[in-house]
Each structure stands twice: as structure tokens, then as C-alpha cells.
Design a protein that fits this description.
- This protein is α/β, with parallel strands linked by helices and 354 residues long.
- It has 2 domains: 165 residues, Rossmann fold (3-Layer(aba) Sandwich), CATH 3.40.50.2000; 146 residues, Glycogen Phosphorylase B (Rossmann fold).
- Helix content is 29%, strand content 16%.
- The protein contains 11 helices and 13 strands.
- Strands 3-2-1-4-5-6-7 form a 7-stranded parallel β-sheet, with helices on both faces.
- It starts with 11 loop residues before the first strand and ends in a 21-residue tail after the last helix.
- The model has no long low-confidence stretch (mean pLDDT 92).
């Protein structure tokens, strides 16, 4: 705490990318555990992810995309920026909002999750930056420039899950946050979760998770798999896509729910893609995990799941697996040893960067 005669603490800012919910979830958890008395500010063009948020002041940015303009046409290859569209009013306005705020408030640190362009822009505004760094092959000019100019690199995972190909200079500059999720303090047992969800205590259950930012878990596939695997109950949580009729009796379309922990903990096996939040929430529930990484830039999800597989905490499922092969795969997976999660360092309850 500052003394009455000391100047007020300079603010700390967070930039939160709009795609999916992973960036927002991470920011919410970090601001909850921020250990200083500095005022916290969040800048984002996805305010719906902070609708009930009171831990920091929210600044709503205009989007850097336009509904009548394909953003993929503005992507740059092998340059110092990934995305820098010309004549997009929203982009110009959002940069002006950030620059004006920095000039007025002189933040002590600006944490960027996740945008190379914002990290470089904030650094050009004379502000110390911390850039969240995800998995994948990120040795392109834009990432290299942002990594070198950032004061801190933040990895939202423990060092044991680092990519094998990450160079030493990047590792040495990285603060590994460890494991953390919004479910870290949940204590319900598998039996209690099944009771709350009115599920059988003995029937094998697989929960299929598909997040907001995902798209690889094709729902028609699970209709076929459920038909071929009548001994298992399939719960489809998140984006469920097109309903098929008639629905097999062992397939339930759950859809989006605010509390997915009950469905994770109730399962014998969880099936998901390779999102960081999904991975950490499954880890918090200590449930066997099968993964089918989605195609993402820089091979992010594939690299992440390969690192998790090295620790024996997931098995990557081949994309060409046949419906009739799932019964054997699930039986093997339900016996997976999840104790490896216990040995991974966790994010501390009070956290701050020096």
C-alpha cells in the first residue's frame, strides 16, 4: 500500500483480443489475482466478455474489422505486421483511443493478449509492454520483432508445456504463469456433478466441448459416433451446430452453458480441440482428455496438444478415425492417468510483474 505522501500508483492496462473467449478469460483471472494497488484498465472490442466485470475499468474499442470487408484480404505475409488494413475507420479510431489514454495516464505497464500490432504500437507510444505468447511456430518477422521489443513475455502455461522448438532467448524472456483456470477452486466430486445433472452414476459419459472460437468439432460426426457407440452417453457442450433427427438416445445437445465444470467433472472422458482454456479447465477437473487440434495459424493447437501429449495428459485423435473405432478409444482413454496435472506449477494467488 502507498503511504499518504507517496504518489498514486500508475495504472496497468490490458488489451484483450475479441476472437473467442480465451483472451478475456485469461485477463479476468489475471486481474483478479493482480497483487499491486495499481488501477487496472481493460481495452477491448469484445465488451460482452466483461458485462459483469467490476475489477477494472473497461474501455470499449471500435472493431478493427468491417462487416463489408473480408479481413483475410488484409493479412500480411512475412512482414513486420500481420494485419494492418488501410482506410478502415474503426482501426484508426481504436489506435487513437489507446494513444490518447497512454498520453494522459502514463501506465506503468500494458499487457497485450493478444496482438503483435497493439504490442508494437504501445511500445512506440513509449510504454512498457508485456505480450502474451501462445504455442506454435512463431519465428516470423512480426512475432520476432514483438518478442524482442516487449519488456516481458507471458506464457499462460507452465514451462513443462513449452514447445520443443522455442529458442532459448524467448524462453529466458518468458514468465511462465503455470496452470490456471476459472475452475481452480471447484471441489465437487464426479458423483455430485452427475447427481446435479441427473445422469446415471454408472453409464460411461463423454463430454464433447466446442468453444466460441472453435469450429472443428463437426456435430454430424458425433451423431454417427453415438450410433456406433451405444454404450456411451455423449454430451455436446458449446457450439452444437445442426441438430439431426432422429437423435440417438445416447446423444444430448447441451449447447452453451455458463458453468461447464459440471459437464467436465461428470465425464469419464472429455473430447475437445486444443484451446488453452479448454485444456486448463479439463486439467482443473482432472478428467482424461482426448484432443483433436484445429487448424490454427502457426500450428498453435497442434503444438500445444503435442506438448500435453508428451506429459501423458492427452491423446491426439487422428482426424480420419472411423465411428466404429471410438468405443475402443474411449475405453482406453477412461483409464488415462491424470495425476501428471498435480506436478505442474500453478499460477500464484497474488501475481504481478516487476
Amino acid at each position: 500500500m502507498s503511504s499518504p505522501s507517496s504518489p498514486p500508483a500508475r495504472p496497468v492496462a490490458f488489451y484483450v483480443h475479441h476472437h473467442g473467449r480465451g483472451h478475456a478469460n485469461r485477463t479476468r483471472l489475471l486481474t483478479e489475482r493482480w497483487a499491486t494497488d495499481a488501477p487496472l484498465h481493460v481495452f477491448t472490442s469484445a465488451p460482452e466478455s466483461f458485462r459483469d466485470w467490476t475489477a477494472s475499468k473497461l474501455h470499449i474499442l471500435p472493431p478493427d474489422v468491417s462487416p463489408d470487408r473480408d479481413p483475410t484480404r488484409d493479412l500480411l505475409q512475412d512482414q513486420v505486421l500481420h494485419y494492418a488494413p488501410v482506410d478502415l475507420p474503426g482501426l484508426q479510431q481504436r489506435m487513437a483511443i489507446i494513444a490518447d489514454w497512454i498520453a494522459e495516464h502514463r501506465p506503468a505497464l500494458f499487457i497485450v493478449d493478444l496482438s503483435v500490432e497493439i504490442a508494437l504500437f504501445v511500445r512506440l507510444c513509449g510504454c512498457r509492454t508485456a505480450l502474451v505468447r501462445l504455442h506454435g511456430h512463431r519465428d516470423d518477422p512480426a512475432h520476432t520483432a514483438a518478442f524482442r521489443l516487449a519488456d516481458h513475455l507471458l506464457a499462460p502455461f507452465p514451462p513443462q508445456l513449452e514447445d520443443a522448438h522455442t529458442p532459448n532467448w524467448v524462453r529466458e524472456k518468458t514468465t511462465y504463469l503455470g496452470t490456471f483456470s476459472r475452475y481452480d477452486h471447484r471441489k465437487e466430486t464426479k458423483a455430485q456433478c452427475r447427481q446435479q445433472l441427473r445422469l446415471s452414476a454408472v453409464q460411461p459419459v463423454v463430454t464433447v466441448v466446442n468453444g466460441v472460437g472453435g469450429g472443428a468439432q463437426v456435430q454430424g460426426k458425433w451423431w454417427e459416433v453415438a450410433h456406433a457407440t451405444p454404450g456411451w452417453l455423449f454430451l455436446l457442450v458449446g457450439r452444437v451446430g445442426v441438430f439431426h433427427d432422429p437423435t440417438p438416445p445416447n446423444l444430448r445437445y447441451i449447447g452453451f452453458v455458463s458453468d461447464t465444470y459440471l459437464y467436465l467433472k461428470a465425464a469419464d472422458v472429455v473430447m475437445g480441440s486444443g484451446g488453452t482454456n479448454t485444456m486448463m479447465e479439463v486439467g482443473a477437473a482432472r478428467v482424461p482428455f482426448l484432443s483433436m487440434p484445429e487448424e490454427r495459424p502457426f500450428g498453435e493447437q497442434r503444438c500445444k496438444m503435442e506438448a500435453l501429449q508428451r506429459l501423458g495428459l492427452t491423446r491426439i485423435v487422428p482426424e480420419d478415425i472411423k465411428p466404429e473405432e471410438w468405443a475402443g478409444l474411449l475405453e482406453e482413454a477412461r483409464n488415462m492417468d491424470v495425476g501428471g496435472w498435480d506436478g505442474l506449477p500453478a499460477l500464484s494467488e497474488r501475481f504481478a510483474l516487476g
